[in-house]
């Protein structure tokens, strides 16, 4: 219901760095929050991410975030140990919520306005996911963090990132990887001969079985021509990619 007061929509401050995207979705793996730790969350790393996200938003990009839970819990690993897969995946969704709340706190301490929207009901700590409300938050200059994946078992946070990016009309997915510079034809952490791939199409990534995103997520992006920018989560890289610099690997399907 309108109160008659005019809403003020956040505008990027004058003089800020130009941005390549009007709206984008940042996909953070749970491992990206590890820093140098073996498990859990590194506060210094989270604070660094928060500063970069704020800088990107202030430059003029409306930014949403999907965060994984690999630093806390992996549904597949638990299922392999005997837990029911669906139950394990629900536990993984709750783990993404822990990461989302941690990231929200860091962002707000850095000066950002945020909202966490969850695909499962946790009304005491997060809003339910509502597409139109998420878009309005972005238009009003808030960073929206999507938690709990798609809300369904058997779907990864990669698929959630692709789905949410398409739902909110994002122009790209910015995919920050932990200690990996982009897409390789093998795992550079175990294969010293793995070659870096600067550009490829969604179909090539699927056909070659490259471990960028799961097949469902790549197919969604391919069908809707949504580009994916894969890069290392290193200091300044989120800002550089958002500003249009060539960092890491670009996955896109050209218009024919």
What strand order characterises the main sheet?
A: 4-3-5-2-1-6-10-11-9
Could you please say which CATH topology applies here?
Carbamate kinase
Low-confidence stretches: 1-17
Count of structural domains: 1
The description of the largest β-sheet is:
9 strands, mixed
Report on the structure:
The chain is an alpha/beta fold and 256 residues long. It has a single domain (23-251), classed as Acetylglutamate kinase-like (Carbamate kinase, 3-Layer(aba) Sandwich). The chain is built from 8 helices and 11 strands. The chain has helices at residues 43-58, 75-80, 85-110, 131-139, 157-167, 202-207, 215-223, 237-242, and strands at 23-28, 62-67, 114-118, 127-128, 143-147, 173-177, 183-184, 196-197, 199-200, 228-232, 249-251. The strands form 2 sheets. A 9-stranded mixed beta sheet has the order 4-3-5-2-1-6-10-11-9, with helices on both faces. Helix 1 (43-58) packs across helix 3. The longest helix is centred in the middle third of the chain and has 26 residues, at 85-110. Residues 1-17 have low confidence and may be disordered.
Summary, kept brief:
This protein is an alpha/beta fold. It has helices at 43-58, 75-80, 85-110, 131-139, 157-167, 202-207, 215-223, 237-242, and strands at residues 23-28, 62-67, 114-118, 127-128, 143-147, 173-177, 183-184, 196-197, 199-200, 228-232, 249-251. Helix 1 (43-58) links the parallel strand 1 (23-28) and strand 2 (62-67).
């Amino acid at each position: 219901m309108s109160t008659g007061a005019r809403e003020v929509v956040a505008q990027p401050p004058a003089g800020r760095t130009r941005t390549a995207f009007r709206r984008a979705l940042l996909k953070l793996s749970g491992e990206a929050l590890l820093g140098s730790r073996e498990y859990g969350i590194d506060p210094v790393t989270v604070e660094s991410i928060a500063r970069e996200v704020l800088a990107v938003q202030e430059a003029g990009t409306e930014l949403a975030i999907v965060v994984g839970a690999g630093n806390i819990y992996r549904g597949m690993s638990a299922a392999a140990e005997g837990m029911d897969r669906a139950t394990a995946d629900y536990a993984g969704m709750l783990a993404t919520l822990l990461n989302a709340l941690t990231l929200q706190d860091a962002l707000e301490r850095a000066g950002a306005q945020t909202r966490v929207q969850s695909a499962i009901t946790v009304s005491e700590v997060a809003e339910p996911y509502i597409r139109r409300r998420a878009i309005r938050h972005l238009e009003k200059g808030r960073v929206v963090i999507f938690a709990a994946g798609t809300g369904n078992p058997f779907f990864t946070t990669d698929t959630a990132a692709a789905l949410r990016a398409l739902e909110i009309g994002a122009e790209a997915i910015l995919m920050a990887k932990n200690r990996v510079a982009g897409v390789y034809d093998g795992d550079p952490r175990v294969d010293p001969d793995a070659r870096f791939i600067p550009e490829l199409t969604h179909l090539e990534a699927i056909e070659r079985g490259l471990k960028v995103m799961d097949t469902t997520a790549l197919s969604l992006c391919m069908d809707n021509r949504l580009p994916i920018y894969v890069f290392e989560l290193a200091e300044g890289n989120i800002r550089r990619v958002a500003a249009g610099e060539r960092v890491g690997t670009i996955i896109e399907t050209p218009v024919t």
